[in-house]
Amino acid sequence: MKTIKIGILGLGTVGTGVARMLEEEKDLISSRLGAELEIAKIADLDIETDRGLTVSRDRLTTDAFSVIDDPDIDIIVELIGGETFAKECFERAIAKGKHIVTANKALIASHGNELFQLAAEQGVDIAFEASVAGCIPIIKTMRETLAGNTIHSLAGIMNGTCNYILTKITCEGASFEDALAQAQENGFAEADPTLDIEGYDTAHKLAILNSLAYGMKINLDDIYVEGITKVTREDIQFAEEFGYRIKLLAIGKRTNGAIEARVHPTMIPMDNLFASVNHSVNAVDVCGSATGDMFLVGKGAGMMPTASAIVSDLVDISRNLISGSGQRVPYLSFRSDRMNDLSILPMDEVITRYYVRFMAKDKPGVLSRISGIFGEYNISIRSVHQKDGGDECCVPLVMLTSMAREKDMRQALADIESLELSKGEAVLIRIEK
């Protein structure tokens, strides 16, 4: 039986999971593949910690380049993370003709266009299923299962940290700070959670999915990104009163010859499937021309779910090696000479519904004046709710709008604030079906 040799760069949580899966499921994998996957070398800065693996010590090294340069190794698994040294390893591996499997969404989102071009020139496969939504096979679904579908839209809950925090606030009344601390204790959040809670991690994933869905070059820079740090218990409670849940959604959809690409807290109706996706679970909805809506849900992170996606990619590339059919599926679903010249719609031009909460001045005529300003910008108010609470001078005022343009909404809020009809900055949350 043919042996395919694997080199792993990074033996952290996910790297350990990959090594464990290749050891524990060795017979199962070989029976499905028709070849053995053998760990030839593993590189990590820490090779002293016992991770419960049976890999012999002579296969461990602190030198990543020695793994890449080994002529016997067929596939490199890059689990270093980040964009600097990992990119250097990628480029060196490609130059050496090594196929690559990675979970590095930041690297793919920021440098994928360049790396895929280099790989194509060298006849090298790059697989990245684990870079988006953990064990959910969304990359394979977009590249292969939906190959005959025009994709109309996609949306997803793709960050377990944010979903865990919002679930804790919604279901248990926790504060943002306490929910984040619990997420860190449970291993769902990093010590520095900025990339997660500010929405950038989700934006990396959306950039990749948009490219696969619409045949456009990866475009991270033009995605609108807004995190969950300004979402309050008060707004979550109001949302529930109106029949909504708040989730951090990534949205990509065709609109007037361009692609909407945005990440932000979103109000979703209670009967929508996304509303019941809780804790660290991820979910992606893709609407195809033939399939209609396809909803995929599963664990978005963690040692073994992510390892499962990586091993899946290892098996795919190994099958290519066995059959001599490398680069069988285009990296980004479309052939490189058939990519579309699509731009991302400016956020100012996005049209959706809105939830707006003011601390309105408690004076006669304020509500009428606020409504009038919305009318000046062609924004229709579907409902108005004055809530209990506030202070002697201001009361909470909540409005739900009909469909409106983002630019008009922003200008209306600026006018309201300039006339001092409210105290502080208004809270704005978009509403999607």
TrEMBL record:
Pfam families per UniProt: ACT, Homoserine_dh, NAD_binding_3
Top-tier EC class: oxidoreductase
Domain ACT: 355-430
The keyword Methyltransferase is assigned to this record: no
Entry keyword set: Amino-acid biosynthesis, Methionine biosynthesis, NADP, Oxidoreductase, Threonine biosynthesis
Xref: Gene3D superfamilies: 3.30.70.260, Dihydrodipicolinate Reductase, domain 2, NAD(P)-binding Rossmann-like Domain
Reactions catalysed, as given in the entry: L-homoserine + NADP(+) = L-aspartate 4-semialdehyde + NADPH + H(+)
Protein name, entry field: Homoserine dehydrogenase
Name of the gene: hom
Record-stated family: Belongs to the homoserine dehydrogenase family.
Pathway terms, separated by semicolons: Amino-acid biosynthesis; L-methionine biosynthesis via de novo pathway; L-homoserine from L-aspartate: step 3/3; Amino-acid biosynthesis; L-threonine biosynthesis; L-threonine from L-aspartate: step 3/5
Record-linked InterPro entries: ACT-like_dom_sf, ACT_dom, Asp/hSer_DH_NAD-bd, HDH, HDH_cat, HDH_CS, NAD(P)-bd_dom_sf
Enzyme Commission designation: 1.1.1.3
Annotated source species: Desulfoluna limicola
